[in-house]
Amino acid sequence: MADTQITPEVTWAQRSSSSDATRNYLFVGVNVPDVPKNAADLSVTPSSISFTGRTIKGVKYHVSLDLYAEIDPENSKVNHTARGVELVLRKKELKAEYWPRLLKETKKVHFLKTDFDKWVDEDEQDPTLDDDYAANFGGFGENEGLGGIDFSKLGGGPTDAKPAAANEPDESDDNQDDEMPELEGDAAKEEEKPEN
After folding, report:
1. How many domains does the chain have?
2. Mean confidence (pLDDT) of the chain
3. d(CA 174, CA 47)
4. In angstroms, rounded to a whole number, what is the distance separating the alpha carbons of residues 117 and 12?
5. Is residue 81 part of a domain?
6. In a domain, 14, yes or no
7. CATH code of the domain containing 61
8. CA nearest 97: which of 14, 12, 27?
9. pLDDT of 151 over the 50 cut
10. What pLDDT does 158 receive?
11. pLDDT tens per residue across span 92-118
Protein backbone atom coordinates (compact mmCIF):
# COMPACT_ATOMS: atom_id res chain seq x y z
CA MET A 1 0.00 0.00 0.00
CA ALA A 2 2.90 2.36 0.70
CA ASP A 3 3.90 2.33 -2.99
CA THR A 4 0.37 3.07 -4.27
CA GLN A 5 0.01 6.61 -5.57
CA ILE A 6 -3.40 8.29 -5.52
CA THR A 7 -4.43 11.37 -7.50
CA PRO A 8 -6.30 13.62 -5.08
CA GLU A 9 -9.47 15.53 -5.87
CA VAL A 10 -8.71 19.11 -6.94
CA THR A 11 -11.35 21.84 -6.72
CA TRP A 12 -11.20 25.28 -8.26
CA ALA A 13 -12.99 28.59 -8.75
CA GLN A 14 -11.87 32.00 -9.99
CA ARG A 15 -12.33 35.76 -10.01
CA SER A 16 -11.21 38.25 -12.62
CA SER A 17 -10.44 41.93 -13.02
CA SER A 18 -9.01 43.95 -15.88
CA SER A 19 -7.77 46.73 -13.59
CA ASP A 20 -6.99 45.35 -10.11
CA ALA A 21 -4.44 42.54 -9.76
CA THR A 22 -5.60 41.75 -6.21
CA ARG A 23 -9.03 40.77 -7.61
CA ASN A 24 -7.68 38.58 -10.38
CA TYR A 25 -7.08 35.11 -8.91
CA LEU A 26 -7.85 31.39 -8.75
CA PHE A 27 -8.95 29.34 -5.75
CA VAL A 28 -7.43 25.86 -5.94
CA GLY A 29 -7.96 23.18 -3.31
CA VAL A 30 -5.98 19.94 -3.20
CA ASN A 31 -7.99 17.56 -1.02
CA VAL A 32 -5.39 15.49 0.78
CA PRO A 33 -6.66 14.73 4.31
CA ASP A 34 -4.17 13.75 7.00
CA VAL A 35 -1.05 14.80 5.10
CA PRO A 36 1.16 16.69 7.57
CA LYS A 37 2.84 19.82 6.29
CA ASN A 38 6.29 18.30 6.85
CA ALA A 39 5.33 15.29 4.66
CA ALA A 40 4.16 17.45 1.74
CA ASP A 41 6.05 18.83 -1.22
CA LEU A 42 4.28 21.66 -3.06
CA SER A 43 5.74 23.41 -6.09
CA VAL A 44 4.07 26.48 -7.58
CA THR A 45 5.59 27.89 -10.77
CA PRO A 46 4.18 30.49 -13.20
CA SER A 47 2.71 27.73 -15.37
CA SER A 48 2.11 24.73 -13.07
CA ILE A 49 1.30 23.34 -9.64
CA SER A 50 2.66 20.06 -8.34
CA PHE A 51 1.86 18.36 -5.04
CA THR A 52 3.24 15.17 -3.52
CA GLY A 53 2.52 14.08 0.03
CA ARG A 54 2.16 11.07 2.28
CA THR A 55 -0.50 10.59 4.95
CA ILE A 56 0.32 9.42 8.47
CA LYS A 57 -0.95 5.97 7.36
CA GLY A 58 1.44 5.85 4.40
CA VAL A 59 -0.96 6.71 1.53
CA LYS A 60 0.89 8.70 -1.13
CA TYR A 61 -0.86 11.47 -3.04
CA HIS A 62 0.47 13.10 -6.20
CA VAL A 63 -0.96 15.57 -8.69
CA SER A 64 0.63 17.81 -11.30
CA LEU A 65 -1.35 20.55 -13.05
CA ASP A 66 -0.25 22.46 -16.15
CA LEU A 67 -2.27 25.69 -15.93
CA TYR A 68 -4.26 27.29 -18.74
CA ALA A 69 -2.29 30.55 -18.44
CA GLU A 70 0.41 31.99 -16.19
CA ILE A 71 0.07 32.94 -12.54
CA ASP A 72 2.19 35.13 -10.25
CA PRO A 73 3.66 32.79 -7.60
CA GLU A 74 5.19 35.69 -5.66
CA ASN A 75 1.74 37.16 -4.95
CA SER A 76 -0.05 33.86 -4.35
CA LYS A 77 -0.95 32.33 -0.99
CA VAL A 78 -0.88 28.79 0.40
CA ASN A 79 -2.72 27.44 3.45
CA HIS A 80 -1.98 23.85 4.53
CA THR A 81 -4.70 22.36 6.76
CA ALA A 82 -5.52 18.91 8.12
CA ARG A 83 -7.96 18.48 5.18
CA GLY A 84 -5.68 19.59 2.39
CA VAL A 85 -3.90 22.47 0.72
CA GLU A 86 -5.73 25.66 -0.23
CA LEU A 87 -4.18 28.05 -2.72
CA VAL A 88 -5.14 31.53 -3.81
CA LEU A 89 -3.19 32.01 -7.04
CA ARG A 90 -2.97 35.42 -8.62
CA LYS A 91 -3.41 35.38 -12.39
CA LYS A 92 -0.56 37.10 -14.18
CA GLU A 93 -2.61 38.73 -16.95
CA LEU A 94 -5.27 41.28 -16.01
CA LYS A 95 -8.45 40.38 -17.90
CA ALA A 96 -12.14 40.80 -17.16
CA GLU A 97 -12.87 37.43 -18.78
CA TYR A 98 -12.54 34.21 -16.84
CA TRP A 99 -10.18 31.48 -17.90
CA PRO A 100 -12.25 28.96 -19.90
CA ARG A 101 -10.71 26.13 -17.82
CA LEU A 102 -8.02 25.59 -15.19
CA LEU A 103 -5.77 23.28 -17.20
CA LYS A 104 -3.89 23.84 -20.44
CA GLU A 105 -5.25 20.61 -21.94
CA THR A 106 -8.85 20.61 -23.13
CA LYS A 107 -9.56 17.01 -22.15
CA LYS A 108 -11.67 16.43 -19.06
CA VAL A 109 -9.91 14.88 -16.06
CA HIS A 110 -11.82 12.87 -13.46
CA PHE A 111 -10.19 14.41 -10.37
CA LEU A 112 -10.84 18.11 -11.21
CA LYS A 113 -14.09 19.63 -9.99
CA THR A 114 -15.59 23.11 -9.84
CA ASP A 115 -15.83 24.47 -6.29
CA PHE A 116 -19.41 25.73 -6.38
CA ASP A 117 -19.11 27.10 -2.83
CA LYS A 118 -16.60 29.65 -4.13
CA TRP A 119 -17.66 29.95 -7.77
CA VAL A 120 -19.33 33.18 -8.92
CA ASP A 121 -20.32 33.99 -12.49
CA GLU A 122 -18.27 36.69 -14.21
CA ASP A 123 -21.10 39.22 -14.22
CA GLU A 124 -22.01 38.60 -10.55
CA GLN A 125 -18.64 39.23 -8.92
CA ASP A 126 -18.75 41.29 -5.71
CA PRO A 127 -15.30 42.73 -5.05
CA THR A 128 -16.03 43.61 -1.41
CA LEU A 129 -16.81 39.99 -0.51
CA ASP A 130 -13.88 38.66 -2.50
CA ASP A 131 -11.32 40.86 -0.73
CA ASP A 132 -11.97 39.17 2.60
CA TYR A 133 -12.01 35.70 1.11
CA ALA A 134 -8.75 36.04 -0.77
CA ALA A 135 -7.00 37.61 2.20
CA ASN A 136 -8.29 35.21 4.86
CA PHE A 137 -9.18 32.04 2.95
CA GLY A 138 -12.89 32.60 3.51
CA GLY A 139 -12.72 33.72 7.11
CA PHE A 140 -10.95 30.62 8.44
CA GLY A 141 -9.73 31.26 11.94
CA GLU A 142 -12.20 33.23 13.99
CA ASN A 143 -15.31 31.58 12.49
CA GLU A 144 -13.60 28.46 11.08
CA GLY A 145 -14.91 29.03 7.56
CA LEU A 146 -18.53 29.75 8.46
CA GLY A 147 -18.45 32.99 6.50
CA GLY A 148 -19.27 35.27 9.43
CA ILE A 149 -22.76 33.87 10.03
CA ASP A 150 -24.28 35.28 13.21
CA PHE A 151 -26.14 32.25 14.54
CA SER A 152 -27.84 34.32 17.23
CA LYS A 153 -29.92 35.98 14.49
CA LEU A 154 -31.24 32.69 13.14
CA GLY A 155 -34.66 31.60 14.39
CA GLY A 156 -35.75 28.50 16.15
CA GLY A 157 -34.86 29.05 19.77
CA PRO A 158 -36.08 30.69 22.92
CA THR A 159 -33.60 33.53 22.34
CA ASP A 160 -36.01 34.92 19.72
CA ALA A 161 -38.74 35.58 22.28
CA LYS A 162 -39.02 39.14 23.53
CA PRO A 163 -38.61 39.40 27.30
CA ALA A 164 -41.78 40.45 29.07
CA ALA A 165 -41.64 43.90 30.64
CA ALA A 166 -41.80 43.82 34.43
CA ASN A 167 -44.95 46.00 34.66
CA GLU A 168 -46.98 44.31 31.89
CA PRO A 169 -49.57 41.70 32.90
CA ASP A 170 -48.92 38.15 31.71
CA GLU A 171 -51.37 37.10 28.98
CA SER A 172 -52.86 33.62 29.15
CA ASP A 173 -52.70 31.14 26.27
CA ASP A 174 -56.51 31.41 25.79
CA ASN A 175 -56.31 35.08 24.75
CA GLN A 176 -53.42 34.49 22.35
CA ASP A 177 -55.35 31.85 20.36
CA ASP A 178 -58.08 34.39 19.44
CA GLU A 179 -55.72 36.76 17.61
CA MET A 180 -54.78 36.13 13.97
CA PRO A 181 -51.57 37.54 12.53
CA GLU A 182 -51.88 40.09 9.71
CA LEU A 183 -51.50 38.79 6.18
CA GLU A 184 -48.66 40.00 4.01
CA GLY A 185 -48.35 40.71 0.29
CA ASP A 186 -51.11 39.68 -2.16
CA ALA A 187 -53.17 37.95 0.51
CA ALA A 188 -53.41 41.21 2.48
CA LYS A 189 -54.61 43.08 -0.65
CA GLU A 190 -57.34 40.47 -1.20
CA GLU A 191 -58.56 40.96 2.38
CA GLU A 192 -58.80 44.75 1.90
CA LYS A 193 -61.13 44.51 -1.15
CA PRO A 194 -64.78 45.20 -0.23
CA GLU A 195 -67.23 42.44 -1.01
CA ASN A 196 -69.77 43.17 -3.79
Report:
1. 1
2. 77
3. 72
4. 10
5. yes
6. yes
7. 2.60.40.790
8. 14
9. no
10. 46
11. 999 999 999 999 999 999 999 999 998
